[in-house]
């Protein structure tokens, strides 16, 4: 058997279409400001992709490029002016920041209602408490992919490799909210291959090229590869050895063309959601009405204590 390939590029394109249609139905153009401090090569690529996708969807997108030596005070002042700007609905500060800037102070300074990354403590708490508001884009994109692939989440064993605030932790919170039996594995996990072999759904978000090999995979499992690693010859590869996994997995995302494009589509979606809440919206404003994956996830958030089954 060969794994089904989950086409993130196509699924993201369809999501962007839906978002564009919804934006066109609004009396305003949602505003997104992306701040890039310094010249990090990878970030520059992502920022360019975001800018292009945002404009194509009808957002009013701008990128604020600041020099690497920008002070924390000056970055905070930039954020304050965006918080105060009525035309701006979404603010994203590209990470990582230069080492002289305290990342958590920057994230806390963003108006939680404009925090389209979902990294502000208020939004993190909302997700942890089971009442998600603005949800981090990459984990949200993964949920869309699982939905599009027809993966059964409720009751399944999900293993998340990685526990960063950007990917691993919010990913596990969403899977738990969707009733998966959820394990978070990391660099101190005693036996990673054993943990992974138990997974019906395996999410790899580590940042190590081809770390997950065929013998780590439960036959038939759905594998979502979040990792983006540049190999010495310049090609992009995920955390999963894709070719080796193909004969064992049930379904798998490629890199590139898997989670990456979904992250950007979900950023547009969060911006539309934030704009709808701030300005009121003809079409309801919330993405959860438009997107089945979030609708079904939202359903699981409906009661704090799910019905026993
Ligand atoms: N496709 C997309 O849209 C996005 C892709 N990415 C990619 O996803 C990957 C992860 O990103 P991010 O979460 O920010 O990375 P971080 O470096 O912040 O976190 C990596 C996590 O992996 C764990 N880890 C590291 N090495 C090992 C190991 N040998 N065995 C087990 N666990 C390990 C770490 O464990 P510990 O906590 O114990 O140190 C940590 O929790 C990267 O490749 C990144 O480029 C990131 C964001 C978006
Ligand atoms: N505040 C903040 N929010 C983020 O969401 C954030 C961040 N900082 N810093 C960096 C990571 C990484 N990230 C990606 C976005 C898109 C692709 C993407 O579009 N990837 C494509 C193309 C990749 C390429 O060609 O380089 C793909 O995988 O097919 C990848 C990675 C968002 N991140």
UniProtKB/TrEMBL annotation:
Q: Which GO terms describe its cellular component?
A: cytosol
Q: Which residues form the Tetrahydrofolate dehydrogenase/cyclohydrolase NAD(P)-binding domain?
A: 136-277
Q: Which Pfam families match?
A: THF_DHG_CYH, THF_DHG_CYH_C
Q: What does the sequence similarity comment in the record state about its family? A: Belongs to the tetrahydrofolate dehydrogenase/cyclohydrolase family.
- Extent of the signal sequence: none
Q: Which reaction does it catalyse?
A: (6R)-5,10-methylene-5,6,7,8-tetrahydrofolate + NADP(+) = (6R)-5,10-methenyltetrahydrofolate + NADPH; (6R)-5,10-methenyltetrahydrofolate + H2O = (6R)-10-formyltetrahydrofolate + H(+)
Q: Which UniProt keywords apply?
A: Amino-acid biosynthesis, Histidine biosynthesis, Hydrolase, Methionine biosynthesis, Multifunctional enzyme, NADP, One-carbon metabolism, Oxidoreductase, Purine biosynthesis
The annotated pathway is: One-carbon metabolism; tetrahydrofolate interconversion
Name the record gives this protein? Bifunctional protein FolD
Domain of life of the native organism = Bacteria
Query: What CDD domains is this protein classified in?
Result: NAD_bind_m-THF_DH_Cyclohyd
